[in-house]
Amino acid sequence: MELPNWLSIVLLLLSFTSFLPQLWLLWVRKDSSGLSLFYVLWNLIVATELFTLSFLLVVNYGDPGGPVDIFVHYPLSVGDRINLAQFTVVWVLWVVIFATCLAWRSNTDHGRRKAVSAIYVLFLLISVIPVFVDALREHSTDRNHTWVLALFGGLHVLFINPIVNFLGIAALFAQARILMGRTPGSGLGALSLVGLATQGATFALLAPLWLWRLWFSWNQIPNQGWLHWQVLGQWFRMVGFVAVDYAVFAGAQSVLLFIAVRRELHNSGASAGETAPLLGN
């Protein structure tokens, strides 16, 4: 069973909408204090990796050296293109947040702008830039292109992507440290509570639905063979990581929401406790 295209479009719109509260708060404040640059960077790298792999597969699927029976259908379906649009929108929105945080002042980055900028530029050199350059060339049966394509895909699937899978957790710790380190009464700064809530809910909905959005050749696996750990491992490396990345992000946003709300309630209670004796006098 595959997810209907209309539902994928609705989910795409929900994803876009879930970023608006955070973007709006940054725009209103003109200040990124309270947002960890590494929280933004790690989430941006995850989004970049997902976009890179989707773009690579969609563009090269017709190439004889391209991937077979993973991630996208043959021939490409409307759903495959909607999936690419989904990854593109999330990536672009994180780029906007990242650029905004770099452009506007913050009292929590402690001079880390150059470091995070350098890290992301280096990652672009091994992700988006190569696939964009590849997309500009004419597809052919050139063996060199086939070899390079296989090498690039293999490096990402076997080495880079497994590391990227953990960055969503690293992002959680980076932002939680900033949250818990803020001075009592200083609020949450540029971190949007509404944004955390909407992203947590939206991506929690999206995560399991990827099981029906990305193609994997289950039809070539014998009965009950999918239960074998090697098959499940192959599924995770090829398509399952997308659902996991989305689930990790949803969980991280929910945890941050819990920390933020608890912190604000604690600070409100402390303020009320300090005010009560004064009112009694």
Short account of what is shown:
The chain has nine helices and two strands, in the order ααβααααααβα. The chain is mainly alpha-helical.
SSE topology sketch:
Blueprint: H1 5-29, H2 37-60, E1 70-71, H3 78-103, H4 113-125, H5 128-136, H6 143-164, H7 167-181, H8 193-209, E2 215-216, H9 229-280
Antiparallel strand pairs: 1-2
Helix pairs in contact: 1-3, 1-8, 2-3, 2-4, 2-6, 2-7, 7-9, 8-9
Structure commentary:
The protein has nine helices and two strands; from the N terminus they run ααβααααααβα. It has one domain. The chain has a two-stranded antiparallel sheet with strand order 1-2. Mean pLDDT is 86; it is low at 62-67 and 275-281. Helices cover 72% and strands 1% of the residues. The longest helix is centred in the last third of the chain and has 52 residues, at 229-280. The protein has helices at residues 5-29, 37-60, 78-103, 113-125, 128-136, 143-164, 167-181, 193-209, 229-280, and strands at residues 70-71, 215-216. The chain has 281 residues and is mostly helical.
